[in-house]
Amino acid sequence: MDDVKKTVKLTIDGVNVTVPEGTNLIEAARQVGIEIPYYCYHPHLSVSGNCRMCQVEVEGMPRLTIGCNTAVKEAMVVKTQHTSDAVAEAQRATLEFILANHPLDCTVCDQAGHCKLQDYYYEYSREPSRHQVEKKHKVKALPLGPDVIFDGERCILCTRCVRFCDEVTKTSELGIFNRGDSSLVGTYPGVELDNALSGSVVDLCPVGALTHRQWRFNTRVWFSKWVNTICTGCSTGCNAKVAVRDGRVVCVKARPNEDVNLEWMCNEGRYGFERFQPAKRLLSPMLKGKENCVGFRELVWSQANALASRLASGDGQDASRSAVFLSPFLTLEEVCIALEFAKVVMGVSPKGPNIAMQLRQRDLTEEEKILISPDRAPNASSALLFGIGGLSSKVNWRDALEKSYQNLLNSVRTGQISKVLLVGDAAISDQDVDNSLTSAMCRAAVSVAITSRGIEDSEGAHFYCDLVLPTRTVNEKSGVMLNKDLRFQRLNSLLLAPATTKPEWQILGEIAAAAGRIILPDEVVDDRLLFRFIISEIDALSALSLSRIGESGLSLESLRTNRCSSSNESLASDR
């Protein structure tokens, strides 16, 4: 059986187009850079065809047709608003109807500046309204649930939000009520919009009728800096566009990626970016008092590095009495440096039982399983890539990683460990901090934590370490992460880190140097140079580049295929 899908050739605005059979006219036009405007259509929802904005002229058809619900046919000739006066006039009329009852409140609307109604009016109409009757008034600022607010007057009844709840989350909280110009989106009696992905309906709303409850009126879109990055809430790695203003995250939108999250995000990830910023921030290296394991005093970095160098092997301590806990929030590059530090400085084998990455699994509801992974470990898959702790199988890798982490914790609790290193925030989960662990850490000969959490925060394992070194949060670093499907994705810095903090890789490099071991060349001074250094040192990553990862990521399988192809080409050229 031939699995190759048949293709169809047609003409759109005089441009020849070849697309797979079954493609609709909106997507076919998009392939050659021709925009057919639309409101209700979404590539990942069913077709409703109710906005009528995507009308086109098809040769041989008696009247205009909608592009979202018209599949391509062989030799079809299509004219859009660019080449057909009838289409352009129909779109102007459609916009006039849509705007008949729409309030002119762009000056206070959160959607202003990225509103499809604004964009299309300026692009396809610019005609004044001929309606002389008073506009229909509807509900304003109506909470549909804990996270979403509804403005009935702005709604154009595209029904994207209704279809999302029916087809994606299958929770069906929303419906269209009443008739004619009294039609209104609302929740069914006794129901509120409270599913795990409910914030996605705001992304889907093209006109500002739905807004995030916690981010209403907090900024204008043109005053914010928008950064393309990934969500670090779990190992799904949803693609996101994050708005930042005055050092705060002020809005988050899902970024389309067919291979990761389509265009959806869960509420935990969307509204949770700032949870990675500690309430009490560590700004300087701190050394614990000698008596009773209490009290801290401030150090300068050179003093701290000298003290931390006691982690080094060769002082008579067996490497089997050392433990290295890695945070799943480290970037791929930082994991590489941490493994090198463990091996070269501490004598700990990266594939042995004395090094582990923190991972705790959790139960998910059926709704959450649509997108959320059963961990809060965005880069835990790097443990699989590098075989940390002997991890080798993709099957049940989370079970194996969690088990190795718990085994190492128990080694600390039972006093088998004399040197402890925590690399990054959440290297040990707060839920694992108990009396037996804290007592053992206080008795350890050397214990060092690299974290952003302040020493006022006594709930974390870092509070029980001798030496605490200030680093950056996951929101303050750039690098590469590997998601649960083994897809490399770029993490971009959202916030500026305090000037007195340093990234984990730099801290480890300086401690190694203080111990007389070199793991980083002097030329590596920023995240970009660190990436280049890593791919030059690790053969398995040699074909990786930031441009190849791009905005949508690169699968490990594609990287390996490319690497094999490159090797074959190299062999061929050698011959």
Explained architecture:
- The chain is of the alpha+beta class and 575 residues long.
- Helix content is 25%, strand content 17%.
- The protein has 15 helices and 23 strands.
- The chain has a 7-stranded mixed β-sheet, with helices on both faces. A 5-stranded mixed β-sheet has the order 2-1-5-3-4, with helices on both faces.
- Helix 8 packs parallel to helix 12.
- The protein is elongated and about 85 Å long.
What distinguishing features does this structure have?
575 residues; elongated; alpha+beta; 23 strands; seven-stranded mixed sheet; 15 helices
Secondary structure blueprint with pairings:
Blueprint: E1 7-12, E2 15-20, H1 25-31, E3 55-58, E4 65-66, E5 77-79, H2 85-98, H3 116-124, E6 142-143, E7 148-150, H4 160-167, E8 174-177, E9 184-187, H5 200-204, E10 210-212, E11 225-230, E12 239-245, E13 248-254, H6 267-270, E14 286-288, E15 296-298, H7 301-308, E16 322-326, H8 332-344, E17 355-357, H9 381-386, H10 397-413, E18 419-423, H11 435-443, E19 446-451, E20 467-470, E21 479-482, E22 487-491, H12 504-514, H13 527-537, H14 546-549, E23 554-555, H15 556-574
